[in-house]
Amino acid sequence: MGLFAPPTGIARADHDMATMSETHHGDASEVSVGLSAEAADFNTAFYVGSYQGITPSLEWMRGRFGATAMIGLYHITENGLSTYGAGDAMLGGMATLVDREDVHAGVALHVMLPTGSELDTFGMGHMMAMPALWASWRSAPLTLSASAGYSRALAELGGLNHGLMPLVDPMNMQELTWSAAANLDLGHGLQLGGKTSGGAPIGTGQTHMLGGGRVAWGTPRVTTGLEVQVGLAGDPFTVRGVLDTALRF
Questions:
Q1: 112-171: pLDDT as tens digits
Q2: How far apart are the first and last CA of the chain?
Q3: Burial classification of residue 119, based on how many CB atoms lie within 10 Å of its CB (0-12 exposed, 13-18 middle, 19 or more buried)
Q4: This prediction's pTM
Q5: How many whole angstroms separate alpha carbon 249 and alpha carbon 160?
Q6: pLDDT tens digits for 10-42?
């Protein structure tokens, strides 16, 4: 899994793809099965509360190509109302265009399916298409990575604006997205990292941004990490903690 495994989001997925490209060698297929648990507090203009969730994920890599699928299952308490439900599922694919020892770069396309309830603030209520570019550079023990993308609702945008949605992964109907991350290999499988990501609306909407730090330990087959994130703009959440683990075959 990548430096920042769950929760869902285009920046997170692009970074996972970059990490898969870095660690995968040869033309043999590699499959990664992941599970994350998260908990967050939020305080927005309309909602106050918290949510907890688990997100199973599946990733596949062969040569320069990869694919990923994930969906979150949540419990939200908003304005005193407790609700359980699934979030929007995300399917994605990527291709590595630059594959050198120290530099990797490529393109990705993710599609978010409206499996989450918009009324219960679990989902967007419509499909989202999210193409992006990603790149990473490594000079041991440091790895830097970044992504830039475009997200758009596959719906008529005229007169349709529900603001940042859903609560568990807020985004605009149409926006430019970005992420930047740094990862330091401390040896013996221990890694320390930091990341920031966000989105800026095209037209009506609100800029959102988060930042966080992560510590992880892993082997070539298993990786487990703990991260803490804070909302920096757009009230995506006040603070969020994520525990994740991944097994590669």
A1: 999 999 999 899 989 999 999 999 999 999 999 999 999 999 987 765 566 788 999 999
A2: 12
A3: exposed
A4: 0.88
A5: 44
A6: 555 555 555 656 665 567 899 999 999 999 999
C-alpha span between 96 and 74 (Å, rounded)? 33
Q: Which of 204, 201, 157 is nearest to 177 (CA)?
A: 201
DSSP state of 118: T
- Which of these, 218, 210, 140, lies nearest to 181 by C-alpha position? 210
Taking the alpha carbons of 92, 112, 237, 146 in that order, is the dihedral positive or negative?
Answer: positive
Cβ-Cβ contacts under 8 Å for 179 (sequence gap 6 or more): 11, 12, 14, 15, 145, 146, 147, 195, 196, 197, 198
**DSSP notation for 140-177:** TTEEEEEEEEEEEESS--TT----SB-TTS-B-SEEEE
